[in-house]
Design brief:
26 helices, 6-stranded parallel sheet, alpha/beta, about 40% helix, 20 strands, globular
């Protein structure tokens, strides 16, 4: 049936010279690509899609307004730079590049002024934010460098894996911004409600581990983070009013904002990325945070990864390198090897944080995640035989491994049944206990998917807690749930990805309990909207989360298109203290050897 959709799409143009290419383009877009790049097609593919027939008939297709070679063309297809796009998606991509150039040019005109502003508070910056990293051989303080770069420029990216301090860089940036101008209008946002909530929770100062800025700055940051939202809410999506794909804030009606900071940027698809940039004035600052090696958006393109790949990381113009070193006086500085003479539009605009504060250099999780993303299969395979404190690999999907790890879920039920404590204490302890472990899967269906594993956990818990743990109703007591669609009909809003537990309150009424802003909030089960059982969740849904212990379950079949090193990296890197990977040696080798390849023209356009 799916194959028929592509075929019918191609036939709908009633033009044999583009029929097969149109069908192929739609199929490739469903796999995450934006366009077909003719130069990367094999000879077999070119023949299969009738590429030469298309090129021979291109003048006629242009005349019939089926294809355009113009940037502002209105035909259904755009053919430009040897790439074939659907018109709308070319416009999204082109708008992203156009917006980035606009931000960069506007920021460049203010560089001297902003350097002077930073120099005027140099002592303040050094006093509050000089890192200890330089003294431990971990290189220059890229957290501070990232903040300084984001202050100077109107378009900046801060990338890096889990635990490298992306949020810490933002705390430093906000402190510097508000020190210079306390009246700045700042917005924090993320692609999902869950990610926005995590962003809000992470932007706090812990006086036990860091020097806290003056109270007036902390209060302003607290007020800013309380308004962290989804990108859709920031732009005021019209979807919820009349099912429209448009936003209140757009190119014609831009946000009145000075700074926009976006977290979990790898999850943003090409359409939303384009619309967000359009809605922000080029005179404002925009900063994107994310892990370039993490899974890309579910929809078309891997925009964040492509942008990060388009320019050298941690490279700076000579004059700017000297300026940054003024703030690193007396400690490890940037060196001359980091000078870049490239004329790339994003030269010096992308900072990669490389030192993990979560994992030590010899920690198993840090070693294996780095090996996965670098396609270092020998290092990954070394974990098959050694007894590592942080990483365990089960090659055979043993029931004994499942059942031993399922015991991690006993705790939350026991906490809820501890009648010596008040209910508000019990439910808080239960949620905390439940969140110490999670099962992550690559797929939804089948024995190794969330559905099969959720049933497996339920069956085992029913055996361990007879008469207490019953699953014969949809909303059963002790059921952990995940929201699968934003629910704006309840207050506070339940966002896609929010997790909670069903439990009876002091009066015996069954309710769903979710943690929101540090408080446990009850919701009536009938008003939850779309939810699913959450002993196991997909790796996609886990992005941005972290758990002390995780079980990552890969499918037994290698013939699954989504098996890539980015998927495995994302799953394994969710674990803080211990990861159990359940996968055959063949599946591990296959997955580590496949990199996500999504076709777009972003890199090419940014370089030109």
């Amino acid at each position: 049936m799916q194959k028929d959709i592509y075929k019918y799409f191609g036939q709908s143009f009633k033009e044999p010279s583009i029929e097969k290419l149109a069908a192929a383009l739609l199929k490739m877009m469903s796999e995450g690509n934006i366009c077909i790049y003719f130069s990367e097609l094999s000879e077999e593919e070119k023949e299969k899609y009738n590429c030469q027939l298309f090129l021979d008939n291109l003048p006629r297709l242009i005349e019939k307004n089926i294809v355009s070679e113009e940037i502002e063309g209105k035909a259904p297809f755009i053919y430009i730079n040897d790439r074939l796009y659907l018109q709308r998606y070319f416009q999204y991509e082109n708008q992203i590049v156009k917006s980035i150039r606009g931000f960069v040019n506007a920021g460049n005109s203010l560089l001297d002024t902003r350097k002077d502003e930073l120099r005027s508070i140099r002592d303040f910056i050094i006093d509050y934010f000089r890192s200890e990293d330089e003294k431990t051989g971990n290189g220059p303080d890229y957290q501070l460098i990232a903040a300084l770069q984001a202050y100077q420029n109107n378009f900046s990216i801060i990338t890096g894996g889990p635990g490298v301090g992306k949020t810490t860089s933002i705390k430093k940036l906000l402190t510097i911004l508000l020190k210079v101008n306390p009246d700045l209008k700042v917005a924090l946002c993320a692609p999902t409600g869950k990610a926005a909530q995590r962003m809000k929770e992470s932007l706090y100062f812990n006086p036990d581990f860091e020097k806290t800025p003056p109270n007036e700055i902390v209060e302003k940051i607290d007020a800013i983070k309380e308004k962290a939202s989804t990108i859709h809410l920031l732009l005021k999506s019209l979807k919820y009013k009349d099912n429209s794909p448009y936003f209140t804030y757009n190119k014609e009606n831009q946000l009145e904002i000075d700074v926009v900071i976006v977290d979990e940027s790898s999850m943003i698809d090409v359409a939303l990325f384009s619309k967000l940039l359009e809605a922000i004035p080029s005179t404002s600052r925009v900063i994107f945070l994310g892990d370039k090696d993490q899974l890309a958006s579910v929809e078309a393109a891997s925009i964040f990864g492509d942008i990060c790949s388009s320019a050298p990381l941690n490279k700076f113009e000579a004059s700017n390198l000297q300026f940054l070193n003024e703030f690193l006086e007396g400690v490890q500085k940037l060196n001359e090897n980091q000078v870049s003479n490239e004329t790339h539009v994003l030269n010096g605009k992308i900072t990669q944080l490389t030192h993990s504060h979560r994992f030590k250099s010899h920690d198993g999780i840090g070693i294996i995640t780095k090996a996965i993303i670098n396609e270092d299969i020998d290092t990954v395979n070394s974990f098959l035989t050694k007894n590592d404190e942080q990483v365990t690999i089960d090659l055979k999907h043993e029931d004994a491994t499942y059942f031993k790890l399922f015991e991690n879920y006993k705790g939350y039920i026991e906490k809820l049944n501890d009648k010596t404590k008040a209910f508000d204490v019990r439910i808080k302890d239960a949620i905390e206990s439940f969140n110490k472990f999670r099962i992550l899967t690559a797929i939804r269906d089948g024995a190794q998917g969330i559905q099969g594993i959720n049933k497996k956990v339920e069956h085992k818990l029913a055996n361990w807690f007879p008469g207490i743990f019953r699953t014969d109703l949809e909303f059963y007591e002790y059921r952990p749930v995940m929201v699968t669609k934003n629910n704006y009909n309840v207050n506070p809003t339940l966002f896609n990805g929010d997790t909670g537990i069903l439990a009876k309150d002091e009066n015996g009424d069954l309710k769903a309990w979710f943690e929101k802003d540090g408080k446990i909030i009850p919701y009536a089960c009938g008003f939850l909207g779309r939810v699913e059982t959450n002993f196991a969740q997909t790796i996609h849904k886990s992005q941005g989360s972290e758990y002390p212990r995780v079980l990552v379950v890969m499918p037994k079949s290698k013939d699954i298109l989504i098996l890539t090193r980015e998927l495995l990296y994302t799953g394994v890197s969710r674990g803080k203290n211990h990861v159990t990977l359940m996968a055959s040696e063949e599946i591990i080798a296959t997955t580590v050897g496949i990199k996500v390849q999504r076709v777009s023209g972003i890199i090419s356009q940014l370089k030109n």
